[in-house]
Every structure is written in structure tokens, then in C-alpha cells.
Specification:
Helix content is about 25%, strand content about 25%. The strands form four sheets. Strands 1, 2, 5, 6, 7, 8 and 17 form a seven-stranded mixed β-sheet that branches. It has a five-stranded parallel β-sheet with strand order 9-16-10-11-12, with helices on one face. Strands 13-14-15 form a three-stranded antiparallel β-sheet, with no helix packed on it. α1 (about 15-25) packs parallel to α2 (about 55-70) and α1 (about 15-25) packs parallel to α7. About 40% of the residues are buried. It folds into two domains: about 1-110 and about 230-295, FAD/NAD(P)-binding domain (3-Layer(bba) Sandwich), CATH 3.50.50; about 120-225, FAD/NAD(P)-binding domain. The chain has helices spanning about 15-25, 55-70, 135, 150-160, 180-185, 230-235, 275-295, and strands at about 1-10, 30, 45, 55, 75, 80-85, 90-95, 100-105, 130, 145-150, 165-170, 190, 195-200, 205-210, 215, 220-225, 260-265. The protein is globular. A hairpin with a 6-residue loop joins β13 (about 195-200) and β14. It is an alpha/beta fold. The chain binds flavin-adenine dinucleotide. The site of flavin-adenine dinucleotide (FAD) has 35 residues, from α1 and α7. Flavin-adenine dinucleotide binds next to α1 and α7.
């Protein structure tokens, strides 16, 4: 397990800026995430300081990543799928099962924009449809489930479910990479190659109908799109979230969360969901994490 000082979770503008400030203070910083999955990727920005003309979000991300690496920050383009508290820090697990031990964490995960799979899926929430594998896997011990989704939350979630459910099906919303598919099959996950088009059942999930007219009988449907967010990764550690959204993380002016050693910045701390705010908060979070690490190391 690699030991580091600061883990930055997220490679959008907030995480990149936090990493730049922490990296310049000569800590061992590793930044995780996928820069080209940032909300900024398709944005054309006209309201950010210092640019006379519109600037492409993609160009800002590329330049920011260059700066980040210039200041010695290691970039790992993988999502974090699990965080465990330790006596003197935190243990992190990446989607490809690399482990890190860190003193401080800066959370800059942005916000997930939920994708709907079935027109009437809301009707079945709590009656067989779930958006959180970590929260609900336990209820499906010995049962039949499907994971419909994309990204690390879906692939990692399907593997995790095999520890509970008797049968796990998977329908990828985005083409799976060869290695992802091989790992899923090796774990006993059955990959569906026809699109689920309808939930079967009146008051609770009984199965799904596929485009090729096959019916699959099921007890549960997990819809997982993107990467794990604040509810799955941070709430279990006791990080206080906004009670209305269950997404936004509560922070103080130093970007400290309710858990010592964890800082947050950017869209994940709530509106306004704007680049200038993300960058400003990233700067503060990076410096606060640096001060925290110094206090722990006695520097
Ligand atoms: C179409 C569009 C247009 C926009 N236009 C403007 C504009 O004109 N002006 C403006 O100010 N703002 C604009 N915005 C908003 C702006 O893009 C966001 O406010 C900003 O990108 C937020 O930065 P962030 O770093 O907090 O999150 P994001 O940029 O969303 O980055 C989140 C990062 O977290 C990573 N991540 C997620 N989960 C995990 C995980 N489990 N482990 C590791 N990493 C993870 C992602 O891979 C990504 O790298 C626009 C947004 C959109 C979508």
C-alpha cells in the first residue's frame, strides 16, 4: 500500500486547483479521477476571470493538468470506490484495486447528473429499484438482481453484489472495456446483450423485459451511472451532508468537513455550481489540507 500525504478525489477545476496549491507546498499528493469526465469538459466559459474571449472548458482542463503535474502531483485516472478510516488517516481503494494510505483527503467529486433508464422507474424506488449498491446490497442476499449503468460505480457495484446475490446480471449503458468485461465474467456476472426496456411487476419489481422480447425474472434493479459520490463514499465515514440533497457536503470557511482530515471543494459543496467558485474553494481546500498534514507531521 502506497503512503501519501494528501489524496485529491476529483480532477475537475476544484480538485486540480487544490492539487496545485498542495503540490507547491512539497507534500506527496496524488490526484484521482477522470479529467475528461469533469462537468467543464463541454462548457464554453465566458464568465471566468482573465479571458477576453470565450474559453473552452477542455482547454482549461488540459492546461490545469499540465500545471498539476509540473508541481509534482501524481495523477491516477481511476475513480475511488471505497474509503476506510484508519487510526492515523484513511485507506483508499481505486476501481482497479490499488490501495493508498493518506493523512488527508480533499473531496472534489463534482455532482452527478442522474440518468433515467426506465420511464416509470420512480414508481419502483424502494420496491426493487435502487440507486445505491453499497446501501442496499445486503437486502438482496440469495436473490436475483441486475445492474444497469456505466462507469466505475456500475462495474465495481456488480462485482460487490456477487458477494450477496445469487445471480447478478449486468447491462452496460456504455460499451465495456475488454478487461472490465473479463473481470465481471470471472466473478460470475452475466452480461446482457439486449437492452432492458420495461420493468415487470405491479407494485414491486418482478423482472425486466429486454428489447429482444426475453423476460428476466428479478428481485432487484440497481441503476448506477458514473462514479461513486458523496452519499456512497463519505456519508458512511460520518461526513455531514446537506439533509435536503443528500449530495452536497457541509464545509466551513476553511473547507473543512465534519470529519477531521477531510476537506471538500467545488460543486460538491453546493451552489453556485460555477467554475470561479470551484477554483477558489479548491485553493482554500488545498492549503487547509497542507496545514493539516503539517500539524500531523509536526512540520
Ligand atoms: C454544459 C455546462 C456548461 C457550464 N458552463 C459554465 C459557465 O459558463 N461558467 C461557469 O462558471 N461554470 C459553468 N459550468 C459549471 C462548471 O463546469 C462546474 O461548476 C465545475 O466544473 C465544477 O468543478 P468541480 O471540480 O467541482 O467538479 P467537476 O468539474 O464536475 O469534476 C468532478 C471530478 O470528480 C471526478 N470524480 C467523480 N467521482 C469520483 C470518484 N469516485 N473518484 C475519483 N474521482 C471522481 C470526475 O471524474 C471529475 O474529474 C458548466 C457546466 C456544464 C455541465
Amino acid at each position: 500500500m502506497q503512503e501519501i500525504d494528501i489524496a485529491v478525489l476529483g480532477l475537475g477545476p476544484a480538485g486540480i486547483q487544490a492539487g496545485i496549491h498542495a503540490g507547491r507546498r512539497k507534500h506527496k499528493v496524488v490526484a484521482f479521477g477522470k479529467p475528461f469526465e469533469s462537468s467543464l469538459i463541454n462548457a464554453e466559459i465566458d464568465n471566468y476571470f482573465g479571458f477576453k474571449e470565450k474559453v473552452k472548458g477542455e482547454d482549461l482542463l488540459e492546461a490545469g493538468l499540465y500545471q498539476l503535474k509540473k508541481f509534482g502531483v501524481e495523477v491516477i485516472e481511476e475513480d475511488i470506490v471505497k474509503i476506510e478510516p484508519l487510526e492515523d488517516g484513511f485507506k483508499l481503494l481505486t476501481e482497479k484495486e490499488k490501495e493508498f494510505k493518506t493523512i488527508a483527503i480533499v473531496v472534489a467529486l463534482g455532482v452527478k447528473r442522474k440518468k433515467k433508464v426506465f420511464n416509470d422507474e420512480e414508481k419502483f424506488v424502494g420496491k426493487g429499484v435502487s440507486y445505491c449498491i453499497d446501501c442496499d446490497a445486503w437486502f438482496y442476499r440469495g436473490k436475483k438482481v441486475v445492474v444497469i449503468g456505466e462507469g466505475s460505480s456500475a462495474t465495481y457495484g456488480a462485482k460487490f453484489l456477487t458477494q450477496f446475490a445469487e445471480e447478478v446480471y449486468f447491462y452496460p449503458l456504455k460499451e465495456l472495456k475488454k478487461d472490465e468485461e473479463e473481470i465481471l465474467i470471472a466473478k460470475g456476472v452475466k452480461i446482457l446483450d439486449s437492452k432492458p426496456i420495461k420493468i415487470l411487476g405491479e407494485d414491486e419489481v418482478k423482472g425486466i423485459l429486454l428489447e429482444n422480447e426475453t423476460q428476466v425474472s428479478l428481485d432487484g434493479i440497481f441503476i448506477e451511472v458514473g462514479a461513486k459520490g458523496s452519499m456512497e463514499l463519505l456519508a458512511p465515514l460520518g461526513v455531514e451532508l446537506d439533509p435536503e440533497s443528500f449530495t452536497y457536503i457541509k464545509v466551513d470557511r476553511e473547507m473543512k468537513t465534519s470529519v477531521e482530515g477531510i476537506f471538500a471543494c467545488g460543486d460538491i459543496t453546493g451552489p453556485p455550481l460555477q467554475l470561479a467558485k470551484a477554483v477558489g474553494e479548491g485553493c482554500v481546500a488545498g492549503l487547509s489540507a497542507s496545514d493539516y498534514v503539517k500539524s500531523k507531521k509536526g512540520g
